[in-house]
Amino acid sequence: MQPIHLAWIDYTILLAYVGFVIGIGWMLSRYMKTSADFLTSARSIPTWVTGLAFISANLGALELVGMAASGAKYGISTAHFYWVGAIPAMIFLAVFMMPFYYGSKARSVPEYLKMRFDERVRALNSVAFAVMTVFASGISINALAKLLTNLLPWQFNLNFGFIHLDSYDSYLWICSGVVLIYVLKGGLTSAIYTEVLQFFMIVLGFAPVVYLGLKDAGGWHAMNHSLQAVAVNPSALYLKDAGISYASNAWTSAWTPVLAGPAHNPMGVDWFAMIFGLGFVLSFGYWCTNFLVVQRAMAAKNMTAARNTPLVAAVPKMFFPFLVIVPGMIAAALMSMPEKNYRIPPPIVAQANYDQAIAAVKAANPADPAAAVTAVGAALGKKIDDKRIESLIKAEAGGKLTDTEIKQGLYNSIAENDYDSVILSLVKKYCPAGLLGLALTALLASFMSGMAGNVTAFNTVFTYDLYQAYFAPGKSDRHYFLTGKVITVLGIVLSIACAYFAKQYNNAMDIIQLVFGFVNAPLFATFLLGMFWKRATGTGAFIGLFCGIGSSALFHALTIAQGNAPGVKGGYVKVLSTFPSEMAQNFWLAAFAFTVCFTFTLVISLATKSQKTDADLKGLVYSLTPKIVDNNLPVYQRPAVVGIVLLIVCVILNLIFW
Amino acid sequence: MGLDIRWPIGLMFTLIGVLLAIDGAVVKSDHAISLGININLVWGMVLLVFGVFMLAGAFKGGKNPPKA
């Protein structure tokens, strides 16, 4: 993708945002007196703020870029990640689980596990979580650095003795530095405030892009109409290999193609994997146990606020598909309209390769283009659209084209799509200077807060659940306060290391789903049994969780998705089962891991004696906790009522897009 | 906690709204890219209204609401 030209107004907006987030950190630092202030916000944040932060912490690099990518690849079915894969879990968390998290006064999710079970379970969870957060943080900041490298016109090449820094390195370290400053100064509250700021920037920054894109495509119905043609022949847009065809509603209907079976929807999933794997296991596993989001609810002012936080978050979450998924659908629709002169950007090819290919086109014999077509394909190193290359060769023979024109022709003939570039290509297409700055800053903000959110979750778990629990218990609060700051720096450094690691891989969304599957799927089984069955014991939980994570790895090692080579995608020990798509593989992996953990926890709990008495477990288990009385609250504030209303709205949305 | 979040949000969007609106009104740019709409002016005004709305809330808010 060619670098974007930014005007002074765009840079002003960008710098204003950076200035504001650092300023927020600075202003909050005077209120950071205890470790609780710094690491957990000491239960002081109003509901609407925690609610928006809750959803914003999740709305990182993945959502904007990944959802637009998936919207192009799969159409409105992507909304399942929201309507099936988030809303029900958020409501469950609010109504049933927050009372235990908040009421137990645990400062983190692992701490709850320690109170409910024992130190072993806490240790396993905190170590796994710590690793996961720095990984997620690294992915986020890596994506940002890559984006800026490809986008901004400046190229850095700095040399400090033997250390060589290129553009990617510079952007990585600068952005990490900004995050470090505001998190170090203002702690979790800083992260929460900037997350809310980011939320508004994303909504206000991208709404115009969606509006303009829809207008350009001719409106909602015209877009759907185009997508019907796309569904019947997706290979024309390089969405699938040649010969694959779906029913015309594959991109515009969320349920019918899924119910029809894996061969009938572009995601390649069956309804059982969708509902149980995504809708139950992965979804509940993430929203109900991931400390990154739960931490924001735990920062609320009181129990009612804590329970309402996920519900407040569920409202924008339900409507987000229209902001983040629709751009992908617009991109696919536009690409199918030849007069729009738009294509989903192809993967990046080096200029040197383009030069080779241009030479091959010029040297081609128009009467027998086949050899030249092969040469072009080899030069570019990507799959190419033979017909387009042939017509390009003919055009070149007919009247000499400029090198730029040939390059454009080659660009349009690459038969692969880089879906992660979709949202950016639309921003470039429709945003004049000014709005461009806003949209890019919103994008930047979401990547940066992906890092900030993960680092603030990491530093809390590391300080309280690892350092205080195992290395240095019984010290003064001042000691832990300072430790929290040191760990913040450590978290940023580790994230940068993970960023360099993540630099190797392409579609971040799939990788994250896989990692979450490994760790989260079994975890929800542990919580489910822990919170609702008092007979669950520490030994049962520990072994169950351990085996759950282990079985994820085992499942991954023994299965593969169609079209993937054994290796990082799975099947590296032996391929026992092949799935129609990676997504299907992930969903089934989650279902499997959950079942293993659940079964082991159940069986071993029955075989071991509980170390905790009923009195110990009061407030931690459903049957031993007094039910919360909501009668004194106005009806619209009662979590159960709000939850039901939200579920109904969610069902209606599903029906509209059936 | 100390700082009411509506202050920085309100300030930022008021600032950005003003910037965009001025750019839209004053700079004679080609609006073809945004399909003929002067999107900077229009959206700048929307952001300005939003920013002012937030600031108004921060002015009135002052103290956090009492415990529920």
Please describe what this structure looks like.
- The complex is a heterodimer of chains A (658) and B (68).
- Chain A is built from 28 helices and four strands.
- With 658 residues, chain A is mostly helical.
- Chain A is globular.
- The model of chain A has no long low-confidence stretch (mean pLDDT 87).
- Chain B is an all-alpha fold and 68 residues long.
- Chain B has helices at 6-26, 39-61.
- Chain B is 65% helix and 0% strand.
- Mean pLDDT of chain B is 84; it is low at 64-68.
- At the A-B interface, helix 1 and helix 9 of A face helix 1 and helix 2 of B.
Q: Topology, please?
A:
The complex is a heterodimer of chains A (658) and B (68).
Chain A: H1 8-28, H2 35-40, H3 47-58, H4 61-74, H5 80-83, H6 87-103, H7 109-116, H8 119-151, E1 157-160, E2 163-166, H9 167-217, H10 220-232, H11 256-259, H12 271-287, H13 291-298, H14 303-319, H15 321-324, H16 326-335, H17 351-362, H18 370-380, H19 386-398, H20 403-413, H21 422-430, H22 435-471, H23 477-502, H24 508-532, H25 538-558, E3 559-561, E4 577-579, H26 582-607, H27 614-617, H28 639-656
Parallel strand pairs in A: 3-4
Antiparallel strand pairs in A: 1-2
Helix pairs in contact in A: 1-9, 1-22, 3-9, 3-13, 3-14, 4-16, 6-12, 6-14, 6-28, 7-8, 8-9, 8-22, 8-23, 8-24, 8-25, 9-16, 9-22, 9-23, 10-16, 12-24, 12-26, 14-28, 17-18, 17-20, 19-20, 22-23, 24-25, 24-26, 25-26
Chain B: H1 6-26, H2 39-61
Give the count of structural domains of chain B. Answer: 1
Q: Quick one: overall form of chain A? A: globular
Q: Please compute the radius of gyration of chain A using only Cα atoms.
A: 26 Å
Helix content of chain B: 55-70%
The biggest sheet of chain A, with number of strands, parallel, antiparallel or mixed sense and barrel status, is:
2 strands, antiparallel
Quaternary structure? heterodimer
CATH topology of the largest domain in chain A: Sodium/glucose cotransporter
**DSSP helical segment count of chain A:** 28
DSSP E strands of chain B, number: 0
Indicate the proportion of strand residues of chain B: under 5%
Main beta sheet strand tally, sense and closure of chain B: none
Biggest interface: A-B, 43 and 32 residues
Specify the helix fraction band of chain A: 55-70%
Ends apart, CA distance between termini of chain B? 17 Å
